[in-house]
Design a protein that fits this description.
Blueprint lengths: L2 H10 L12 H20 L2 H17 L6 H19 L4 H5 L2 H7 L5 H6 L4 H18 L2 H14 L5 H16 L4 H16 L6 H4 L3 H31 L5 H13 L8 H27 L4 H6 L4 H11 L4 H19 L19 H11 L24 H20 L1 H8 L8 H15 L5 H19 L4 H11 L10 H7 L6 H31 L6
Helix pairs in contact: 3-4, 4-20, 8-19, 9-10, 9-17, 10-11, 10-13, 10-15, 11-13, 11-25, 13-15, 13-25, 14-20, 14-23, 14-24, 15-26, 18-19, 20-23, 21-23, 22-24, 22-26, 23-24, 24-26
């Protein structure tokens, strides 16, 4: 065929195509595409989220009238700005947490020196030192050695799924008692998924027999239990001690800020209340996972992939404990003893009395963490247990978030916003205190499902502190439920970073979290309602008037 002829024929078949771009529809389409591109750019760069904070602040400062209290109105606007940046992730968490450093002086809430001091006190020192110790434990694989030892102990021969769950969850809870629950979840999840990697991930779809398909389903259900167990046990263990979670640290800091004349909440006093509360929740967690995910056939299904010899083989690959590991454990154990014995009872004051009460929990935490940079590791000449290069992964975002929480608490009080808000809650004055405590826990527990537990605590505790004073009850009767409720974030991945870590493994869904988390949330509220007026009254002295 003549190529010229084929060219003209093909051209004649496409006579409807214009030679030049036409105006009209194409211009409208191009404009639409440009608008979509601009919108995508706004969303991708989070400009709308960034603008939401200043816009909300401007609207509150321009439209809200708090009876002439300009500073309180400004504080409310700044709170909206910072909180929107937190929940929308408009800027990194650490950057949003530093916003009070410039917003408070600009809006006349407090001076630059006053707000900066909130970012470093004894409580922050406690968190900073515990993070350094956690990095040392992770660097020397102490957490993995402990997990394998306890898991192999509880594995059973043949495999007993409830006992194995008890070992995994118990190990996670114990570690989370002494380091922040988020690093604990990050450290323990690879240990848990390392066990789960022995199991077929999608065996049910490829199984040929009904028996094999049933075994695969049992294995998958148990995998859900392991991941949920690590996530929830980490949160529960953090509730037991001050160092386990930022919520407890925020509670201690705000209690000292609002009521400086009152005895502080110490490591030992909180553990006296938090540990029984955590044990009740742990038993509920174990029972819930066993009922939902373990059946009489689960052990037989797991036996094909897991036994005690596998775990012992992994443990043998780690080798014997080195000098460095022993030294880190010795420093960590010494710190726990110092935490527990600084203040004991009125008759036995503890070693803190030797320093006339000038030494805090943060003091000894930094002191013991400093030893890690002095004690040799025993590996190479001049090498210490820790160096600053190993501390590059310090969670400065959490430290700055705590500082922002303390700054906001100071701002609430200095601006008079707490007085105004407490006046609006005066209708609760006649309500019985025992009824208000669980309501405060439920209120805080509902908010914490949609934002971080630390941010929830920062928002809720100042209100509860003023509410306690306005209705004539001990503030801790409301502040403790608010803090505990903020830690009951069991239903959604957005509730805490630990939930995100578990959800990202792909083993669990939101439905799984809701089904397993709702019973825990109910048990948590019920346990708090019983323990706070009884045990809490003795531990915190809530039977005394302020």
């Amino acid at each position: 065929m003549d190529p010229r002829r084929s060219y003209w024929e093909s051209s004649s078949e496409d006579v409807t195509r214009p030679l030049l771009p036409l105006h009209g529809d194409d211009d409208d389409g191009a404009a639409g595409r440009r608008s979509c591109a601009a919108l995508r750019s706004l969303l991708a760069n989070k400009y709308l989220a960034v603008a939401s904070g200043p816009v909300a602040c401007a609207l509150i400062c321009g439209l809200v009238d708090l009876g002439g209290h300009r500073t309180a109105r400004n504080m409310l606007g700044v709170l909206a700005w910072v909180f929107l940046w937190w929940i929308t992730d408009a800027v990194p968490l650490a950057v949003a947490s530093m916003a009070p450093l410039f917003l408070f002086p600009v809006f006349g809430i407090s001076s630059s020196d006053a707000v900066a001091k909130a970012y470093m006190d004894d409580v922050i020192s406690l968190v900073l030192g515990s993070f350094i110790l956690a990095l040392a434990i992770e660097h020397y694989n102490i957490h993995r050695r402990l997990a394998l030892n306890i898991t192999s102990l509880f594995c059973g021969d043949p495999v007993k799924p409830p006992l194995l769950l008890l070992g995994i969850c118990g190990t996670t809870m114990f570690i989370s008692m002494w380091i922040h629950n988020t690093p604990c979840t990050v450290m323990m999840m690879p240990v848990a998924t390392g066990i789960l990697q022995r199991f077929p991930r999608d065996g049910a779809s490829s199984s040929t027999s009904s028996g094999a398909a049933a075994d695969a389903r049992e294995v998958q259900r148990f995998s859900k239990a392991v991941v949920l167990g690590v996530v929830y046990a980490s949160a529960i263990g953090g509730m037991a001690t001050l160092t386990g979670t930022g919520v407890n640290i925020i509670l201690v800091g705000m209690w000292s800020t609002y009521f400086p004349e009152q005895p502080p909440i110490t490591f030992s006093s909180w553990m006296s209340f938090g540990l029984p509360m955590a044990l009740v929740l742990f038993v509920a967690l174990w029972a819930t996972l066993c009922v939902l995910y373990c059946s009489k056939n689960t052990g037989r299904a797991l036996s094909a992939y897991l036994d005690r010899s596998h775990l012992r083989r992994e443990l043998s690959l780690l080798g014997p404990m080195a000098f460095a590991e022993k030294m880190v454990l010795a420093v960590f154990g010494g710190l726990i003893v110092l935490w527990m014995t600084r203040t004991l009872t009125d008759d036995i004051p503890g070693w803190g009395s030797l320093f006339h009460g000038e030494v805090g929990d943060g003091t000894v935490t930094i002191m013991m963490a400093t030893l890690l940079f002095i004690i040799p590791s025993g590996k190479n000449d001049g090498e210490k247990l820790m160096d600053w290069g190993k501390c590059r992964r310090l969670q400065w975002n959490i430290i700055l978030l705590l500082g922002a929480g303390f700054a906001i608490a100071d701002g609430f009080r200095a601006s008079g916003l707490t007085d105004i808000l407490s006046e609006g809650l005066g209708f609760l004055r006649g309500a019985p205190a025992l009824a208000i405590a669980p309501v405060a826990c439920v209120f805080s527990g509902a908010i914490t499902e949609f934002t971080s537990d630390d941010a929830t605590t920062t928002l809720v505790l100042p209100l509860l502190a003023e509410l306690g004073k306005s209705i004539g009850v001990h503030p801790l009767l409301l502040m403790v439920p608010g803090a505990v409720g903020a830690q009951l974030s069991y239903l959604l991945p957005t509730g805490s970073p630990g939930n995100v870590v578990g959800f990202s493994t792909g083993y669990i869904s939101i439905k799984d979290m809701v089904i397993a988390g709702m019973p825990l949330k109910i048990v948590g509220v019920a346990a708090l309602t019983i323990l706070l007026p009884t045990l809490g009254s003795v531990v915190f002295g809530m039977d005394q008037k302020l």
